[in-house]
Design brief:
The protein is 45% helix and 11% strand. It has 345 residues and is an alpha+beta fold. The structure holds adenosine-5'-diphosphate (ADP), 2-acetamido-2-deoxy-1-O-phosphono-alpha-D-glucopyranose (GN1) and magnesium ion (MG).
Length: 345
């Protein structure tokens, strides 16, 4: 599904409701797949990010509550984060993070290490968040067996008649079903603890500063879960040699040197991890990437209703890159385990 269109009047009314009456330009911004995001220029020169929350996906009232709590808690600790300027559901306004950039593919090893350090710090910063527990804003978000169930439902319904064309992709998933419950099972048994984690650690959800003091953004899915959800999803994009929607699969693989930088940056900051978590660090990269591929495939079968897409077949292209990344990580599994050991002691 493409993003929704808005009239200038709708955008002006949203801005006015949050106290901005001097906008000179409001234009689409970024490459997020969920919300509708705009950059706002004003006469005074102050810039903002205007977002309309995707209400097909989020309960806007619960989301506002989580976002407010997380941003205020980080602010109380002096941690630089998203600054909420206005929040009038389903619209919200953030201060524009001036001097920062975001990228869709990692540029170099140093950047990968800094991104991992930023997410480790984020988990540390939220470790002592006072009760009540944050809302499960999307239930079973990284419950991979539940993602399999959703795929099976989409296959059974086959609303767009696409099932026959994805037999190879479904076989790829079938060959890996058995491993899908490992993290949720370890959580159920208590071996892996619940922590407040980000859950959407893709590279363009970190704003990069020239000095490496990066800021974690897109806090919509910050909620209780496993630290491994964050590390695994980080590997998915931040070890990738190419973009999530690269069509030339020969360019898509997981770069060992980026993976090593991620492990180094993350483990230097995430001192709280227990043995069960450490033992599954490399596995989490494969699992979270497989899960994301399953989600893109499911959305393709459902007729592209969840993720923003720009062309027919976009979700299938994304599914292919994710599965290629999984294969690449499987091929390098022994080396990746050795890297984790090297930095775990
Ligand atoms: P989505 O949930 O759709 O992914 P995001 O919150 O990630 O939306 O925002 C989309 C993009 O907009 C980000 O990847 C980033 O490039 C940009 N962006 C978001 N918030 C800010 C901000 N406060 N300052 C500057 N850029 C931002
Ligand atoms: C979405 O919102 P965005 O574009 O940062 C999705 C993630 C996926 C990602 C795949 C709330 O992230 O879970 O991993 O797309 N966010 C939600 O690119 O579903
Ligand atoms: Mg985002």
């Amino acid at each position: 599904m493409g993003s929704r269109n808005y009239t200038p009047e709708e955008l002006s009314a949203a801005l006015a409701s949050m106290g901005v009456a001097d906008a000179t330009d409001v234009s689409r911004y970024g490459s997020g797949h969920i919300n509708d995001t705009f950059k706002v220029e004003t006469k005074s020169g102050v810039r903002y990010i205007l977002q309309r929350v995707n209400t097909d996906i989020f309960d806007p009232v619960l989301l506002k509550s989580n976002i407010t709590r997380v941003t205020e808690f980080l602010k109380s600790k002096g941690v630089k984060s998203l600054e909420v300027v206005g929040y009038e559901n389903p619209w919200r306004l953030y201060a524009f993070l001036e001097g920062y950039t975001s990228v869709d593919v990692v540029t170099d090893v140093r950047e990968a290490e800094q991104v991992a350090a930023a997410f480790a710090k984020f988990q540390n910063d939220l470790a002592d968040m006072p009760p009540p527990r944050l809302e499960d804003i999307i239930k079973r978000f990284h419950d991979t067996p539940d993602r399999l169930r959703q795929l099976d439902e989409a296959v059974a319904a086959d609303v767009k008649g696409r099932k026959a064309s994805v037999a190879k992709e479904l076989a790829f998933v079938d060959a890996r079903r058995a491993q899908c419950s490992r993290i949720v099972d370890l959580m159920k048994s208590g071996a892996i603890p619940e922590r407040v984690v980000h859950q959407d650690t893709k590279i363009n959800n970190v704003m990069l500063a020239p000095d490496g003091t990066n800021v974690v953004i897109d806090l919509d899915t910050t909620m209780p879960g496993s630290a491994l959800y964050d590390f695994g999803d980080m590997v998915r994009t931040s070890s990738a040699a190419a973009a999530e929607d690269e069509k030339d699969l020969s360019k898509v693989y997981s770069k060992k040197e980026y993976f090593e930088a991620l492990v180094k940056g993350y483990l230097a900051g995430a001192k709280f991890l227990n043995e069960a978590e450490k033992a599954n660090i490399a596995f989490s990269g494969r699992l979270l990437t497989l899960e994301c591929g399953i989600r893109f495939l499911t959305d393709y079968l459902n007729g592209d209703t969840y993720f923003h897409t720009s062309y027919a077949g976009h979700n299938l292209v994304r599914c292919h890159t994710q599965f290629k990344m999984v294969e690449s990580m499987e091929e390098q599994a022994a080396e990746y385990e050795a890297i984790v050991k090297k930095y775990s002691s």
